[in-house]
Write a structure and sequence with these properties.
- It is built from two helices and six strands; from the N terminus they run E-E-E-E-H-H-E-E.
- It is mainly beta.
- It has one domain.
- Strands 2-3-1-4-6-5 form a six-stranded mixed sheet.
């Protein structure tokens, strides 16, 4: 199963399934540690989160993934990280 994380959309953690993807929406000010791996993971954030340091904190919260292994794709004012 693939994972899609959207840390900029919610104030609380929200989970669900869409088109075969499990998604978790988290607020970047309430970062948890996420352990475990999946075949593919996507984390979508606003570009402003890179500038204020929150993007790095969110990516580091995925403790089973290499912090330097994230690929980036910029779309509009969003960044899609994947591994």
């Amino acid at each position: 199963m693939n994972w899609l994380f959207l840390p900029h959309l919610a104030k609380l953690v929200v989970t669900g399934y869409v088109a075969g993807l499990r998604f978790i929406v988290i607020h970047p000010d309430f970062i948890n540690r996420w352990a475990g791996r999946t075949d593919k993971i996507f984390v979508i954030m606003r570009e402003t989160m890179i500038q204020d340091g929150r993007a790095g904190a969110v990516l580091k919260s995925f403790v089973s993934y290499d912090v330097n292994g994230w690929d980036q794709t910029h779309v509009e004012r969003m960044v899609i990280y994947s591994q």
